[in-house]
Design brief:
Layout: E1 3-7, H1 12-23, E2 27-34, H2 39-56, E3 59-64, H3 66-82, H4 89-109, E4 113-115, E5 120-122, E6 127-129, E7 152-153, H5 161-169, H6 172-179, H7 193-198, E8 207-210, E9 216-220, E10 235-236, E11 244-249, E12 254-258, H8 260-263, E13 264-275, E14 281-287, E15 295-302, E16 305-315, E17 322-327, E18 330-337
Parallel strand pairs: 1-2, 1-4, 2-3, 4-7, 8-12
Antiparallel strand pairs: 5-6, 6-18, 8-9, 9-10, 11-12, 13-16, 13-18, 14-15, 14-17, 15-16, 17-18
Helix pairs in contact: 1-2, 3-4, 5-6
The structure holds adenosine-5'-triphosphate.
The site of adenosine-5'-triphosphate (ATP) has 16 residues, from α1 and β2.
GO cellular component, one term: cytoplasm
Catalytic activity: S-sulfanyl-L-cysteinyl-[protein] + uridine(34) in tRNA + AH2 + ATP = 2-thiouridine(34) in tRNA + L-cysteinyl-[protein] + A + AMP + diphosphate + H(+)
Active site: 93 (nucleophile), 187 (cysteine persulfide intermediate)
Length: 338
């Protein structure tokens, strides 16, 4: 029987994925990784995994990767905010933690294929958007190592979240899992990223708001409270129209604000590229945040840096986020916005 190692989070998606893989004739082995140190959170998830394992009669493993997660994902997240970036820990984690550890553990167990409950599609060469556009997670997967792809299965890629939930509710032992509240977007952030940062650095430190010409026009609570495009939580004296954060100077604890048109960007530079194609110059579409539409662009790559000229302006481009290239639904690659 063909075996597959399934990354199980204890949530409805990966739990339901286990049932799909079994129906397809796989012998499923599950693995749960403890990435962050919130034991209560793990306990709840592990309870769910035990329940699924019992339902399906599958073997599962609980693996501690807290130290690695701390160094490879958590620390860069905190350091990123301190440096004035808007980090994207999930896209980073998928490359340096989740899939790396999943593949390594599969190798240890002598299993060829790995699976997750991501809403995305792969043909072993490329990643494509999942059919459920409201749940598609291809953006977060742009950074996967190419050599991983032939070993990955995404059983939910052609399914709709709503149907997954409905079907899971019909299975008695999955019912309670399907009824649980969805997990937050970043697994180690329980409430707000600000609470996480407060454990490591001083976040509340009032500073000045300046306009693009450097003139002081207001006050803010501390630069880490803001991301590019934010228009609330700071004061601009005598402002009659909305002002948006257009830049920040972390070393001086200054945020720069401007009107909507000053937020517009038609040129973006990406570094730390991960490409699934060899071409160095091409036309495609780019997504500069998770929840946004794709914009047509022209890309030129030189020495692992991509210069992207956009056909229409985008608003709220934040350094540290991922820029992901698409051709239709296919992910061509991407990099980090600088
Ligand atoms: N701690 C973990 N250990 C092992 N696998 C995990 C873990 N967290 C997430 N995964 C895997 O990554 C996939 C996507 O994770 P994400 O956090 O986006 O979950 P999700 O879409 O809410 O799915 P789920 O309902 O399965 O939690 C999960 O479906 C699962 O396969």
């Amino acid at each position: 029987m063909k075996r597959v190692l399934l990354a199980m989070s204890g949530g409805v998606d990966s739990s339901f994925t286990a049932t799909l893989l079994q129906k397809e004739g796989f012998e499923v082995v599950g693995v749960y990784f403890k990435f962050h140190p919130h034991e209560e959170y793990h306990e709840k998830n592990i309870q769910n995994i035990k329940q699924v394992a019992k339902l399906l009669g599958i073997e599962y493993h609980i693996e501690d990767r807290m130290q690695e997660f701390q160094e490879r994902v958590y620390k860069p997240f905190v350091d990123g905010y301190i440096a004035g970036l808007t980090p994207n820990p999930c896209a980073l984690c998928n490359r340096v933690m989740k899939f790396t550890e999943l593949i390594a553990f599969a190798d240890k167990l002598g299993i060829e294929h790995v699976a997750t409950g991501h809403y995305a599609i792969t043909d072993g060469q490329f990643i494509y958007e999942g059919v459920d556009k409201t749940k598609d997670q291809s953006y977060f997967l742009f950074n996967l190592k190419r050599e991983f792809l032939p070993r990955i299965i995404f059983p939910l890629g052609k399914r709709f979240k709503e149907d997954v939930k409905k079907e899971a509710l019909q299975i008695p032992l999955l019912r309670s899992i399907a009824e649980q509240k969805e997990s937050s977007e970043i697994c180690f952030v329980q409430n707000s990223y600000i609470d996480v940062l407060k454990e490591h650095t001083q976040v509340d430190m009032p500073g000045v708001v300046v306009n693009k010409r450097g003139k002081v026009i207001g006050e803010h609570k501390g630069y880490m409270h803001y991301t590019i495009g934010k228009r609330k939580g700071f004061r601009v004296h005598g402002a009659h129209e909305p002002h948006y954060v257009v830049d920040m100077i972390p070393q001086k604890n200054i945020i720069v604000v401007g009107k909507k048109e000053e937020l517009a960007k038609k040129r973006i530079v990406l570094r730390g590229l991960n490409m699934f194609i060899e071409k160095k110059e091409f036309d495609c579409f780019i997504k500069v945040r998770y929840r946004t539409h794709k914009v047509p662009c022209h890309v030129k790559i030189d020495e692992n840096v991509a210069l992207v000229e956009l056909e229409e302006a985008v608003y709220g481009v934040a350094k540290g986020q991922a820029g992901v290239f698409y051709e239709g639904e296919k992910v061509l690659g991407g990099g980090w916005i600088v």
